[in-house]
Structure formats: structure tokens, C-alpha cells
């Protein structure tokens, strides 16, 4: 079942009198629970496509449809609510809140997504997820005392604790070494499959493509291949 | 979850530094306000303690009360028409005590009124500060403009004029001392609007205070210092939070990307501002009031709870404005830029 559709999406940046067409009428759809990787050379437009799909910047033309909602016609507040409740984000760096413990990072995300769970249920949920990612013993630790791999695992937990429908991951393994990158991808794959979360991921690391269901090759603002 | 409080808990020293500076600035402001109030009392308690009303002095006195002379007919007319009207005169002078020491005083005489202490001829009632200088009830005081001696009949509390203790004397003695028949001023208490009397100019209590030499200059200087300190505290908040926000642009961008409302980030700053200001103010209020009770007797320091409440409200408002101004940049933060930049 299709959950996400991009229809003829274009993005043009204007720099003085020069207009640069970064995305040239991209159309694609994402199926529920599927992991899709966007690959391509630097400047091919993959990160721009991901951020437009995630509602972090508007498209110049075309439509972004998520679960029956047209993100391109919604107000920024409506898009923010969708981002908070239905989307999860993992970035190249963990970007954890430096003054919150691991448990509090996840608690904050549940609050932001307006979780209906009671405090007790939220704590239980957090404990379970931390247990799955092997970070239960570090739940009271601050980000400054975590290793790079641990930080990124917490970032993944923060991205999915509220059970989003779509996970957007922008180079999630770029700051990790090869071993940790594989562990991270395994974790993302296991969790998203278990929770039936659709994933759109930008990566330039070919080793990571073994963990995805579908690969979209981008070049010069267009999707060339659908592997 | 109160993320503002969480940040304070994690970065105690950073907030402690800001809190300490705000505490010192607010303490200094309260101490200077206490001094301003004290000097104001020292300069004009005689007038400040009067109920609201209007003073009248002759038009040709050019706002100088001791050049004013109220025409006797006009004075009688006013006194007949207004039961509560009081005619008074104030002149700076001195009294010589029994040890031949000269004490500067402000001689005050008034027609029959509850607002001014009444004394009989050849008697004087003086401000209690003269008691500390060795003057006792029953002492005989002299003045080289008066042939008779004045007997000290008692003391009054906190009656000062132009930084000198007030000496209430009878109008007959006053006339002999200054060789005048007319009174200088008429005071009409409780009048909402000034009356029109031939040849007289009206002054509200506040306007009359301005005619006291040095009163305005003294109060304006201190008010200026207090105003500057308040502005400085607002700027401190603005600069501190601005610097903090600059360091957290990436974090705010990520938080906005994951769906946190901008208003929540503002609430975080306001919580921190309120927390710091309330603690700093509580400490400075306690210390300044403690100082109020232990200040040396001769020091003109007078701090009321009304003044500290007003200053506290001003500090909170200024802190709020400072923090909000610094937070305006949060609104402009693009989540995308934060994602594209590296981790702090």
C-alpha cells in the first residue's frame, strides 16, 4: 500500500539572476514498511528531495502527498504537526539535546508527538526500546558521555519512539566507522520492519544498500534508476 | 517536561554567573533607590508627609518659596473660604544650643492646623535628629535674630526640609526673627484641582518639591543611575541569551525539524529568565532590607516594600523584554540549515 507520493516535484533555487533547477519533475511513491535508499553523486539533489518529502522545505512545483494529505498546500503549522506525529528523523550527526539524559531525549519526543500514553506507559515504552537498542544501562547518561555509535543509536530511538509512519534518514551512518555503520543499518532495518515504518534514506555508502528494499539512483535532479 | 529547567540543572555554572550578575545589579539598584528615597526624605520629609493638595505662592516670587509673600487680605480670604487651608512659612536658619554649638535648622511656622505642629511663643519643637546632637527637652536655644530664648518642648520624628532638621516655632517668634508680617505659602489639602487666587500661583505637592533647591538635581541624578542599572540588567539578559542562542542554533533547528513549536523554545528562555530573576531578586530584596535595618543612623537610606515591589516588577518586565528580543532569532532558524551543519 502506497503511503507517500511525490508527483512532478520541482525545486528551483534563485541566486541573483541565475536560476538553478535542483529537482526536475520527480515522481515516486513509497510503500508502507519499505526501506528506500536515495543514492547519487554529491549535488544530484537527493538531500533536497528528502527534505522536501519531509516537509522541511517547500517544493517549487508539484505535489507531496502523505497518507491522503497534500503537504504542499498545508500551512507550516499543519506540516509541523505531521512532522511531530507521523515522521521520524535521523541525521548524519546525532544532534541530541546536550542537557537531556538518554531517557529524557525520548520522553521529549513523546511529548512533542502529543503521545496519549500515561507517564508510566511512556517510561515503560522507553525502557523497552532502550533495551532493544542495548542502551538501557545508559538511560541516565548525558550525550557528552556517550560514544559516537551510542549517540547515533539514541538518535534512532528518538526518531521512532513515537511510532512514526515514515522515517527520514539523511546519511545516518556517515559519521560512523564501517562496523558501527553496519550495526546501525541493521538496527534501523530491524526496528522499522518490526514497527512497519516506511523509510526514505539518503546514503552514499554502497555497503549500506544491502539493507534496503529499493534503491533510487539520482543524477542531476532526476531519478534515473529504480532498482 | 520543563527543558528550560533541565538546561539550568545541567549547566549550573553558566546560569550561576548570569544569576550572580543580575543579583549584584539588582542589589545595587535597590541600594541606590534606598539612598534616593532616603535623600528625598532627608530633603523634603516635611512636604512629602503632607496629604495631596496644592501650595500657593506669590506670582512674583518666581518659584522661589522664600521670596514669596502672601498678601494678608488674600490669606484671610482664603482661610475664611477654606476651613482646612493653612498658611505657612519656611526659612533656613540656625539655633545655638547650650554648649554654644550652632545647629542648622529649617524654621517652620504655620497657622492653626493638624498638619503642622503648633507651638506657643518662645517655645520650639525640633526634629528628633537634634536629640542625637545633645539637645534635650527643656534646653534653652538662642538665635542671633531673636532676643528671646526658645525652650525645647519636644521632638518630632522625621521632619526634614532641605537636609536640615525642622524647628517648629510660633508665628510671632518667626515674625520677630525675619521681620516680616506676611506668610510665604498657603497650602490647601485635598483639592483635586488648583484654585485661582489673585496674585498667587499654584503648585501640586510634586511641583512644590521641585522648587526646593537641589531636590530635583539630586533626585534626577539618582533616578538616572537607577534607570541605567535597569537598562543594563535588560541588556545583560538580552546579551546572555543571545550568546546562548547563537551556540544553540543547530540544536534549535533540529528541535524545530522534529516538530517542536517555536513557542516552546521561547517558553524555555522565559522559564530560565524567570528562575534567575526571581532568585536574584529574592536575595537582593532580603539583603537590601537587611541593610535598611542596619544602615548607620546618619545615612539617609530609606527603602520601602513598595519601592522594592515596583523595582522587582520593572526588573521582571525588562528581563522578559531582553530575553524575548534575544529569542527573536529563534523564529528565523531554518531546520534545514541546522541539519546541514555538523554537530556542535
UniProtKB/TrEMBL annotation, chain A:
Domain named ABC transporter: residues: 4-227
Pfam families the UniProt entry points to: ABC_tran (PF00005)
Residues in coiled coil: none
Keywords: ATP-binding, Cell membrane, Membrane, Nucleotide-binding, Transport
Molecular functions (GO terms): ATP binding
Family, similarity comment: Belongs to the ABC transporter superfamily. HrtA family.
Protein name per UniProt: Putative hemin import ATP-binding protein HrtA
Automatic annotation (TrEMBL), chain B:
Compartment(s): Cell membrane
Alphabetically ordered keywords of this record: Cell membrane, Membrane, Transmembrane, Transmembrane helix, Transport
Topological relation to the membrane, as annotated: Multi-pass membrane protein
Main location: membrane
The ABC3 transporter permease C-terminal domain, residue ranges: 224-335
Transmembrane helix keyword on record: yes
Subunit and partners: The complex is composed of two ATP-binding proteins (HrtA), two transmembrane proteins (HrtB) and a solute-binding protein.
Role this protein plays: Part of the ABC transporter complex hrt involved in hemin import. Responsible for the translocation of the substrate across the membrane.
Family, per entry: Belongs to the ABC-4 integral membrane protein family. HrtB subfamily.
Protein name in the entry: Putative hemin transport system permease protein HrtB
